[in-house]
Design goal:
The chain has four helices and 15 strands. By secondary structure, it is α+β, with helices and mostly antiparallel strands. The protein folds into two domains: about 110 residues, Alpha-Beta Complex (Nucleoside Triphosphate Pyrophosphohydrolase); about 120 residues, Nucleoside Triphosphate Pyrophosphohydrolase (Alpha-Beta Complex). A hairpin with a 2-residue loop joins strand 4 and strand 5. The two termini are about 35 Å apart. The structure holds zinc ion (ZN). The site of zinc ion has 8 residues, from loops. Zinc ion binds next to loops.
């Protein structure tokens, strides 16, 4: 897996370099996406690149991310695509490395100028922050914490389909944590807002970074307390209680939703 720590050595030809065109990862058609590009290969294919944003170390090798121009892609050699297309197709640690690369690149792209005084920023704190060259205001990568919750009622689980998003899945409920709110409070509020029921016994289970664009999904279990399902039609198309033997199509096991559903039924 990608070891996240400060890269403090001089860039070399043997560094790993993740490449993106805007939000799309660029992979070589000649090998699988978990054989990462070396810096010398990137420079051979795309010309001189900057040092790039440091990501940490993959198997002891310093790793960076750079953006290239779509015009420099060679259709016979390169494939660019959303990270969604890699999800579940590469090992989880490889997907997480691509996810970190995309988030660091997006953050750098969105913070070229100071949000306070609009002067140019430059990397500081070993590349972990961007600091304003005029006023010193520094910006760190922003994560958006979200809760995702498997609500149980006896041996049944609440699953819902989202309004306006044809994922084909029945999934657990999820939503962003509001400023000033605890994760547990967000669970209770989101469930109440989306399906009109109250829950109790909210407990943390696991988490997953989700780089679309920069969520940190915090997974919970909660128990049904009271109320009938009344969906918010702006958020939810359909919601109901399901048993192990009548499950609809659920998200894949690599996703945190899939993991919560699996863990719920593992003990029932
Ligand atoms: Zn400034």
């Amino acid at each position: 897996m990608l070891e996240i720590k400060t890269v403090d050595e001089t860039p070399s030809d043997e560094d790993y370099v993740f490449i993106f065109v805007k939000e799309n990862a660029v992979v070589s058609l000649r090998r699988p996406p978990d054989q990462f590009w070396l810096r010398r290969e990137v420079e051979h294919a795309f010309g001189k690149i900057g040092v790039g944003a440091p990501l940490g170390y993959w198997a002891g090798t310093p790793s960076y991310v750079v953006e290239v121009d779509s015009q420099d892609l060679d259709a016979m050699e390169h494939l660019s695509g959303s990270l969604y297309s890699l999800f579940g197709r590469v090992p989880d640690a490889v997907f997480a490395a691509y996810g970190r690369a995309l988030q660091m690149l997006s953050w750098e792209r969105d913070h070229k100028f100071c949000g306070r005084c609009s002067a140019i920023t430059a990397p500081t704190d070993g590349g972990k922050a961007l600091a304003c060259t005029a006023c010193g205001h520094s910006a760190y990568p922003r994560l958006n914490p979200c809760v995702i919750v498997a609500v149980g009622k006896g041996d049944q689980l609440l699953l819902a389909t989202a309004a306006g998003r044809a994922t084909g899945f029945h999934s657990t409920l999820a939503g962003f944590i509001e400023p000033g709110e605890s994760a547990e409070q967000a669970v209770i509020r989101e469930v109440q807002e989306e399906v009109g029921i109250s829950v109790t016994n909210v407990r943390y289970v696991t988490s997953q970074p989700w780089p679309f664009p920069s969520q940190l999904m915090l997974g919970f279990f909660a128990d049904y307390a009271e109320g009938d399902i009344v969906i918010d039609p702006l958020e939810i198309a359909h919601a109901d209680w399901y048993s192990r033997n009548d499950l609809p199509t659920i998200p894949p096991p690599q996703s945190i939703a899939g993991q919560l559903i699996q863990r719920f039924f593992d003990v029932r």
